[in-house]
Design a protein that fits this description.
heterodimer; A: 425 residues; alpha/beta; Rossmann fold; TIM Barrel; 2 domains; 7-stranded mixed sheet; 6-stranded mixed sheet; 14 helices; elongated; disordered N terminus; disordered C terminus; B: 552 residues; alpha+beta; Sulfite Reductase Hemoprotein, domain 2; Sulfite Reductase Hemoprotein, domain 1; 3 domains; 5-stranded antiparallel sheet; 20 strands; globular; binds protoporphyrin IX containing FE; binds iron/sulfur cluster
Chain lengths: 425, 552
């Protein structure tokens, strides 16, 4: 089978009904992934089966099965535009290694992206919608063309997947095939080693479940591998793994996690993580690199392709990195105690003198009485753990005198300033 | 004088509402004292030995009679009937109740006053020459610029959490009456070769435990760039001032440790960036503010000449007052009058509610409604017609404020000390009172002439003892109070820090020790024209030391 069919095939209802989904599930040994896939491709859904792969940390196993069964099975890859470059490299590497000849990228509708996510930050404010325009929507016309789909889901992966069978019937009468349903983490690893499969480059760095770059983080030892996805967000699944018609297959039961990043009027998930002792300048991603570390590893960090931030401690000289500021998606200014006012000068230099327009966040001892001053100095995001301050932000009652005598930035001119400063600077 | 516009009013009202809310949260128990502390400090509310203390800003020391009456009203209604004028040209109330503070602040707001930034690690009230706008020796009236600095520094978002408090003083006259060399920044009016007026900028002066004389960092900053220059200094200080040790956090330590040239380099580099930017003062704005400080409508005065010698014979007390408490005015036929808050045996700087009201009446009637507070803890009527001097004197006499001792030995600066202050090692007000009584005799005071005694109850030096011709510092030794004497300090353009002369004295022996110093001076001076400080400079400490401690 070469190309995906343009006209949707009739799902094999009759055959399914004849066998019964239960019987189908009883046919195979739990670990007989290859048998499941081969039977699905040749007997249940011949010419009517496709695969969506994330080309993530575990994708190689399923794709290796596919290559053995039929290297021309259509493999779709959601090119959301938000992937790690490592992932894109990995797609090419696996294709070559496994001899897959029908890997196709699916792109989001450009008009939708421009309309709903012009700044590319929708993942941050509304990941569900981001996934919708970048994954669910683009996939829909493709899913309609096939009677069945192969997924790489496993029972152990998340709580919700605990009862995953080999074959499932979706509410719109399609079949989902899950050859790896009974594989454990160890099984996956053993399989990879046994068959000498290339590793995703980020796997060694602690990423266990890899999706789009902004929504993926490192998973701690012993943590649920998918805990690194949408970390901090009450979000576990992308729309695509639910029923194809969009209905939610199982309710999201995870408790809401507390977000500490206040930005644009709300607490949101924070894609950044603290810089840790052993972090590598070359491979770090979504970390605020301490300014001295940056200076000591400037070349490596400029060559690092991942999104990075800069951490400025009191006493660090922001002027030393002036020329490289554009490298950073975010600058975190540290306030070790609310009485340490050095960060205010850093913020003004950044936002006003160097015209740095990305996120400038305050971290550390961030309290309600200081936030209005921080804002005036150009800080536009706050990591806040102090409970009364959180409440004050949510209820929008910061202790603030909101008219100003002196100009500190351009934003508040001309309103609210003294007559002599009511000039555009 | 400056009048609030709607903007200023809204600003102060906003701040009062904000602090009222914070006080209410404290009273209801929602805020702990720890959480409340930084908030109240930003509003001039201290917790003292006995009670809260509220410090109210008197911007550059200027008051109208309406404001003075309001202060009297507050003293009477919310305090124990008096207030204390400070060396920062402010006023403090020592006994307000927390629950009354919002009401006090509202009252203050109604007369364009507040307590913002009278404490905390921010830019404090800018102080200036008490004779500003009146003195004959003035190059420029510093008050419009002081007002512009007040506006620029009020709740400045970048400079509200400095390493330590920050004090600016300025003078428009070459004769420094504002102790500018002992401030974090001192500004002295100057003229350049082209005849433009600008400012000499002195930086890194201060008293406290490490007294330092300010250093000249720039000999001419044009008026229009002054704010940009100040902002440059503030930024360098905010970024590099020490924060590891509270006692080394003032800018004087930064300048001292880094060296003036380093700091100057940093400031000038910063200035090169901000100069010509949004802080450039347009002349129209300077003119607009200056208009508020236009001189009053002086009426041409008949050439009145008071024969002081004659008056001294028929009314010696009036004669002394004329001799000491009158300063020459730039307008012919006018004079500036110093109202001494140093009655013999009284607490320096205190005024009762009745006295405040009376002074307000006098100012309204004879002095174009204007009053000043001096850094030496006195009051001033800046503009009085010479013809009215007698009437003013009589009115002051009636309210007990006619002491003619300005600049004399009993005109002491003195901090609150152990009677009020939680940090004190020793009493200071009773010491001042005792010295005052010792030298009460007018003839004696006149014979001694100009002599500044300054007393602090601890090393924080609120009483400026370092710059007293005779300085007295209370220290704690072996459980008792001891007073150390310094000699040769000077707060003026001949700035000098006094030197400790030897071991301290117990309180009872102190007045005698001061008498010994004074007697030594009188015995050794070249003539009655040679003042104590001049004689000290000529003679050095040796004869004084010998007189106090005998020969080794
Ligand atoms: C009653 C409670 C007071 C307390 C607790 C207090 C506390 C202090 C402290 C801790 C300092 C040292 C700051 C430093 O060097 O960093 C200081 C300095 C100073 N205080 Fe006070 N003070 C009080 C009252 C006053 C009063 C009544 C005056 C005026 C008469 C005053 C005038 C000053 C001045 C002029 C300094 C300046 C020293 C400098 O600038 O280096 N203080 N005070
Ligand atoms: S994984 Fe993240 S960025 Fe990618 S589509 Fe989903 S929410 Fe958007
Ligand atoms: S000098 Fe010391 S004793 Fe006097 S007021 Fe200041 S802190 Fe208190």
């Amino acid at each position: 089978m070469a190309l995906p069919k343009l006209a949707p095939a009739q799902p094999a209802h009759d055959k399914l009904r004849a066998l019964g989904i239960i019987a189908l599930n009883g046919m195979f040994d739990e670990m007989d992934a290859l048998g499941v896939l081969r039977y699905a491709a040749s007997d249940v859904l011949p010419g009517d089966l496709a695969i969506v792969s994330s080309f993530g940390a575990d994708s190689a196993v399923l794709l290796h099965l596919v290559a053995q069964v039929d290297p021309s099975l259509p493999v779709y890859f959601l090119e959301t535009g938000k992937h790690f470059t490592e992932t894109l490299d990995y797609v090419e590497a696996l294709k070559k290694h496994l001899g897959l000849i029908n890997v196709q990228a699916i792109y989001p509708n450009q008009a939708d992206v421009e309309r709903f996510d012009p700044a590319g930050t929708l993942w941050e404010t509304d990941p569900d919608s981001c996934c919708h325009i970048r994954k669910t929507e683009p996939l829909e016309p493709i899913t309609e063309q096939f009677g069945g789909w192969v997924t790489g889901r496993k029972r152990f992966q998340t709580v919700e997947r605990g009862v995953l069978p080999h074959f499932e019937l979706t509410s719109d009468d399609r079949i989902k095939v899950n050859p790896l349903a009974y594989f454990s983490d160890a099984d996956v690893n053993r399989y990879k080693i046994e068959h000498g499969l290339p590793e995703h480059p980020l796997f060694a760095k602690g990423y266990k479940s890899i999706g789009c770059a902004p929504c993926t983080s490192v998973v701690a030892e012993g943590e649920d591998p998918r805990a690194g996805r949408w970390r901090g967000l009450n979000k576990k699944e992308c729309g695509i793994h639910f029923d194809f018609n969009g209905a939610i297959a199982s309710p999201m039961t995870a408790p809401a996690t507390r977000h500490t990043l206040w930005k644009n009027g709300g607490f949101i998930a924070d894609p950044f993580h603290a810089w840790a002792e052993g972090d590598e300048p070359t491979g770090a991603s979504y970390k605020h690199v301490p300014l001295p570390v940056f200076l000591a590893n400037r070349e490596a960090i400029l060559a690092n392709p991942h999104p990075l931030g800069l951490l400025v401690a009191p006493g660090d000289r922001i002027e030393d990195v002036e020329a490289d500021l554009h490298r950073f998606a975010s600058v975190a200014i540290q306030f070790p105690g609310f009485t340490d006012g050095r960060g205010y000068s850093t913020a003004r230099l950044l936002s006003q003198r160097y015209q740095y327009a990305n996120e400038i966040r305050a971290i550390g001892d961030v309290l309600q009485d200081q936030i209005p001053l921080m804002r005036r100095c150009g800080i536009n995001a706050f990591v806040v753990t102090h409970e009364p301050t959180r409440q004050a932000l949510i209820e929008n009652r910061l202790p603030e005198v909101n008219i100003f005598y002196q100009p500190v930035g351009t934003a508040e001119i001309p309103v609210g300033t003294r007559p002599f400063l009511r000039r555009v600077s | 004088m400056y009048r609030y516009d709607e903007f200023d009013e809204a600003f102060v009202a906003g701040r009062t509402a904000q602090f009222t809310d914070q006080i209410n949260r404290r009273l209801s128990g929602e805020l702990s004292e720890d959480q409340f502390r930084p908030l109240r400090l930003m509003n001039g509310l201290y917790l003292q030995l006995h009670a809260y203390m509220l410090r109210i800003a008197v911007p550059y020391g200027t008051l109208s009679s309406r404001q003075m009456r309001k202060l009297a009203h507050i003293a009477r209604t919310y305090d124990r009937g008096y207030g204390h004028f400070t060396t920062r040209q402010n006023i403090q109330f020592n006994w307000p109740k927390l629950k009354d503070v919002p009401a006090i602040l509202r009252e203050l707001g109604s007369v364009e006053m507040h307590s913002i930034q009278t404490s905390g690690n921010c830019i404090r009230n800018t102080t200036t020459d008490q004779f500003a706008g009146a003195a004959a020796d003035e190059i420029i009236d510093p008050r419009p610029v002081a007002e512009i600095i007040r506006q620029w520094s009020s709740l400045h978002p970048e400079f509200s959490y400095l390493p330590r408090k920050f004090k600016i003083a300025m003078t428009g006259s070459p004769n420094d009456r504002a102790a500018i060399r002992f401030h974090d920044i001192g500004l002295q009016a100057a003229t350049n070769a082209a005849g433009d007026i600008g400012w000499e900028v002195w930086v890194g002066g201060g008293l406290g435990r490490t007294p330092m004389i300010g250093k000249l960092i720039n000999s001419f900053v044009p008026n229009e760039h002054l704010l940009a220059y100040l902002e440059s200094i503030m930024r360098v200080y905010n970024r590099y001032g020490r924060r590891d040790n509270k006692f080394k956090a003032r800018i004087k330590i930064l300048v001292h440790e880094e060296g003036l040239e380093t700091i100057k380099g940093q400031v000038e580099a910063e200035f090169a960036e901000v100069r010509g930017g949004v802080l450039t003062l347009p002349q129209e704005e300077v003119d607009r503010i200056t208009a508020y400080f236009a001189p009053p409508q002086f009426t041409p005065q008949p050439a009145t000449k008071i024969d002081v010698a004659y008056q001294s014979i028929i009314d010696p007390a009036y004669g002394r007052w004329l001799d000491n408490n009158i300063n020459s005015h730039r307008e012919p036929g006018y004079a500036s009058v110093t109202i001494s808050l140093k009655p013999i045996g009284g607490a320096p700087g205190d005024a009762t509610a009745q006295q405040m009201d009376d002074v307000a009446d006098i100012a309204e009637r004879y002095a174009f409604d204007e009053l000043r507070v001096t850094h030496e803890q006195n009051l001033v009527l800046p503009h009085v017609a010479v013809a009215d001097l007698r009437a003013v004197y009589d009115a002051l006499l009636a309210t007990g404020l006619a002491e003619g001792n300005t600049g004399l030995i009993t005109d002491m600066i003195c901090c609150p000390g152990l009677d009020f202050c939680a940090l004190a090692n020793a009493r200071s007000i009773p010491i001042a009172q005792e010295i005052s009584r010792t030298f009460a005799e007018p003839k004696r005071q006149a014979e001694i002439g100009d002599l500044k005694i300054k007393i602090s109850g601890c090393i924080n030096a609120c009483g400026h003892h370092h710059v007293g011709h005779i300085g007295i510092l209370g220290v704690e030794k072996k459980g008792g109070e001891l007073y150390q004497i310094t000699l040769g300090g000077d707060a003026t353009q001949q700035a000098a820090v006094g030197k400790i002369i030897g071991p301290g004295f117990e309180a009872e022996k102190l007045p005698k020790a001061i008498e010994t110093l004074v007697d030594t001076y009188i015995a050794k001076r070249e003539s009655a024209d040679e003042t104590f400080i001049q004689a000290y400079r000529r003679l050095g400490e040796a004869p004084f030391k010998e007189a106090l401690y005998g020969t080794a």
